[in-house]
Amino acid sequence: MLEQMRKSSQSLLIYVLFGIVIAVFIINFGPQSQRGSGCEGSMGGDESAARVGGETVSSQAYNYAFRLMGGGNQPVQFLKMRRFKEAVMDRLIERELLATEAERLGFSVSEDDVHKMLIEAKIVGLGVPHSLPRIQKDGVFNYDQFKNFALYELGLSPERFIEQQQRELLASHVRDLMRASVKVSPEEVKTTFEAKNRQINLEYVRFPSRKFEGEVEPTDAELAAYIQANEAKLKETFGQRKAMYTDVPSEVRVRELVLKTVAPADEAATRKRAAAIAARVAKGEPFTKLARELSEDEESRARGGDLGWKRKGTLGLSEEDEKSVLAAKAGTVVGPFKKGDALALFVTSGSRQGTLSFDAVKSEMAEERIRQEKAVALAKQHAEDALAIAKGAAGKSLKELFPGPAGAEADTKPAAKPVAKSAKTPAVPADTRAEETGLFTRRGSVVEQIGDSPALAKAAFDLKTDAPLAGPFDIAGSFVIVRLKERKDPDMQELAKKKDELQRDAELVKWNEVLTNWVKSRCQQEKSAGKLSVNRSILRYDDTQAQTAYEPCVGDESPRRPPS
Fold this sequence. Notes:
Elements: H1 2-9, H2 12-29, E1 48-52, E2 55-58, H3 59-68, H4 76-82, H5 84-104, H6 111-119, E3 122-125, E4 128-131, E5 136-137, E6 140-141, H7 143-153, H8 158-181, H9 186-197, E7 199-208, H10 220-229, H11 231-240, E8 248-260, H12 267-282, H13 287-294, H14 298-302, E9 306-310, H15 319-327, E10 333-339, E11 342-354, H16 358-391, H17 398-401, H18 409-412, E12 435-436, E13 440-441, E14 446-447, E15 451-452, H19 454-460, E16 469-475, E17 478-488, H20 492-497, H21 499-528, E18 532-534
Antiparallel strand pairs: 1-2, 1-18, 3-4, 5-6, 7-12, 7-13, 7-17, 8-9, 8-11, 10-11, 14-15, 16-17
């Protein structure tokens, strides 16, 4: 049939002369003259790219697929970033699994079936139909142009190209069979339409647990009890952090209390304030308590001034002042020292150096765990209190209830501390600020501006104007409450207008899911049976690259085109 097609495209004499020219060109300059340039044998002769079931996928077949997907026209860095070669291998494995299933079901594809497609200037590439006008001349199939396309663009002889197309068409038979079996009810179409076109706008308040770690100050008794109850877990953590505790340079545990000066002229007054605070500590008031109440550095104030373990060059002070802090006797207030545009008092509570034992750091690790656990409980409690306040103020928005710090005043004053509450009156930190998502549609479990939460995603789109509140939701270490601010329901007249189009789209989405799941399942079966292997060296992007990290059957989630 190929011979007949060739003869019909131009005269025998022209073909022979042209063929001689091509042969000479191929021998001297063609793709096989150097490895990797594209012709038959250019990827290592009979080297296989993979084995799928009982079939060998040759390096030539891989090269054909790579080029057909456009890989030959892209820079290496772009291909690496997109993991392009791995994606080609995924699709080739998929094709072979489908083609083998087609043969099992009794389908067959002859050379004539491929020839008929070529005469119409059509081919299939990894499940995607292509129109190929460049294999025609004056609107009619031209054998020489087809041969040049196969040989120079895809690296295959015409005969090998037709073999690849036979595998493609076999796979297409199973895709078509799956497509025909997919049915989507009008109710499913309606549900999908509503999900895609319903929009909501949420107000939300977020309570990050990390923010409240500074409010937790474990007592010695709490630390001892925690260590006794969790010694095994702490030892496991110690083992994971062993490098952190090896050859530790000289360090001192430091707390600070920062007082900002608005202008240089105010420095004397600020120093008097600092001296008064130091005198209060000397009389027995805890430095930690005063730091929480009076420090004007938001971050350290939340932790009672605790800076953790500090070594030389990390305090942000002059060399002389830093030396005074690091050499100070534990429990003695030193300063005030200049720190940026502020003055700071310091107190130390211990020192360490060298390789530290478990006993030396177990209290520190226990303190960290207690802070984290109690901070989570505090964040959740604040969220529950905020929700109770919102429920008790029907008609008020979260932004009205939780406006956050007041304007410019918030920039110069310490952040407000949690308001005390009685058993009957819930309260939250006075600096709690509500935010807004803006209108968005549902997309899986991700909620616009807030984060990934299947529970919130479901609850949010079920909210009504007469029941607008939900929460708290635990999202990536924060507790969040939400209030429905605005809801835009879909236009059902639009559904009626586009019913047929939406039906087709829904069926294609479902078909893609069915196909993806089938391919993953069959791929895993073949791999478990030892019938699937991949030559990973063929997936390298350059000669210097180590073996590519690739695992078949993980899954390619990119959408398929409609069956050919």
